[in-house]
Amino acid sequence: MIPLRDSQPSRSFPVMTLLIIAVNVAAFLTELSLDEFSRNHFIERYGLVPETLRPAALVTSMFLHGGWLHIVGNMWFLWIFGDNVEDILGRWRFLLFYLGSGIAAGLAHYALNPDSRVPTVGASGAIAGVMGAYMLKFPHSRIKTLVFLLIFVDVADIPAVWMLVYWFFIQVVSGVGELGKQSVNEGGVAWFAHVGGFLAGMALVSVLRTRDRYRNYREYYW
Question: What is the pTM of this model?
Fold first, then answer.
């Protein structure tokens, strides 16, 4: 399933969401500008390597990506869900929320793969936090979604809570299915980083103060 847009309008311009997207794109273009040896060194230095965990890498790794599909997918999900979460938190609380979710995602990955020598990169954990917050705050929003059913493709309006619970379920099942299968030198999808980020986002948005004018925030529908 690929989300196309949501039914929840934003009452403020998503400055911080766009800034985060811009920083991710700039970092990715920097990666592309390097030769293969320099790029590998760059990823090794700024990616999250559990075996030699550096605290700074918990932040820098979430602004790096492994390819065009990786960054385009992540930034699209951030654009769909991030503007509304920024809308209720405000710009600077949203930035702290985003970084906190990403750090929690990195720590979840580290906890399950402490001996891994493979650099982990990507904003997926932080964006999973945004999705967790969106699910709590806008469960009845509807997501216009591109749905693939075998050889058929359709567009459906799906309640946000259904779509996001399904997405979370897939991350958990996929992560459990790969437990113990990867070696310390083998890469793959950091499923439990997604799980950790999603749960952290739900927790953080529950304790962070929302803007006063949004205390009685009402949802909109198509």
Answer: 0.90
43/66 Cα distance (integer angstroms): 9
Q: Please list the helix, strand and coil fractions of the chain in percent, rounded to the nearest 5, in that order.
A: 60, 10, 30
The predicted structure's pLDDT at residue 14: 95
Going across the sheet that includes 2-6, the strands are 2-6, 142-149, 152-159
Q: What tokens were used for 68?
A: 């065009």
Looking at domain 11-211, its CATH class is mainly alpha
- The per-residue pLDDT for 151 is 78
- Least Cα distance to 75 among 110, 28, 39 occurs for 28
Q: Region 191-196: what's the mean pLDDT?
A: 94
Return the CA Rg of the chain.
17
